[in-house]
């Protein structure tokens, strides 16, 4: 984040890591309104646009995890959805361009909706069959899974969340290093 005080940026990074899985809209709002104390919609919109451009570039050029297709073949009776803190329209665009939309029969969902709103919508449409597994990379994902009585699997390599080990066992969550470990 160029042009901002390093202490403010570090506070924002700490907030971001502590709130993994939360929408960028909420995070940037927090940065400008709570850290910088500058409620400037134009600045927020410009920061969101810059971030969006970087995310789109990264998602269009990153390596696809081939385990997705292999897992879909193994678990071919399961129906998948994406419930992300990422921007929904960006996710749908990228998944379509990268030809992986068909893996997610229940849909691809993201912000500005919260994960609770996304899960409630899927449940209300009676599309979620139990038992169901929520795979995620944040404590927020774990909480969303538990709110809807879903099993939860934490994927360590996806995460920036440093305190995840304190949640292992005692009916909290299971973890794997990578998605490939499911194979």
Task: Please characterize this protein's 3D structure.
The strands form 2 sheets. This protein has a 3-stranded parallel sheet, with helices on one face. Strands 1-2 form a two-stranded parallel ribbon. The protein has helices spanning 6-18, 24-35, 41-61, 67-74, 88-97, 115-124, 139-147, and strands at 81-87, 107-111, 133-136, 151-155, 174-176. The chain folds into 2 domains: 6-61, no CATH class; 67-182, 3-Layer(aba) Sandwich (Rossmann fold), CATH 3.40.50.1000. It has 183 residues and is α/β, with parallel strands linked by helices. Strand 3 (133-136), helix 7 and strand 4 (151-155) form a beta-alpha-beta unit.
What is this structure's SSE topology?
Layout: H1 6-18, H2 24-35, H3 41-61, H4 67-74, E1 81-87, H5 88-97, E2 107-111, H6 115-124, E3 133-136, H7 139-147, E4 151-155, E5 174-176
Parallel strand pairs: 1-2, 3-4, 4-5
Helix pairs in contact: 1-2, 2-3
Q: Structural class per helix/strand content?
A: alpha/beta
In angstroms, what separates the terminal alpha carbons? 38 Å
Low-confidence parts: none
The strands making up the biggest β-sheet line up spatially as: 3-4-5
Largest sheet: 3 strands, parallel
In CATH, the homologous superfamily of the largest domain goes by the name HAD superfamily/HAD-like
- What count of structural domains? 2
The count of DSSP E runs of length 2 or more, i.e. the number of strands, is: 5
* Arithmetic mean of pLDDT: 88
Any guess at the CATH architecture of the largest domain? Answer: 3-Layer(aba) Sandwich
